Amino acid sequence: MLVLGDAHAADPENRRALFAAYREADQDVTLQLGDLMYYDLPKPTWFIAGNNEDFDTISALRNGLVSNSEVRNANLLASTAVELEGLRIAGLSGNYAPTQYDRPRANLVGERRRHFTYEDIERATALESVDVLMTHEAPHGLPVSEDYEVGCQYIDDLLTVLDPDLCLIGHHHQHSETTIGTTRVVSLAPTWERYYILDPDSLSLTWVDMKEH
Question: N or C terminus: fewer CB in 10 A for the chain?
Answer without folding.
Answer: C
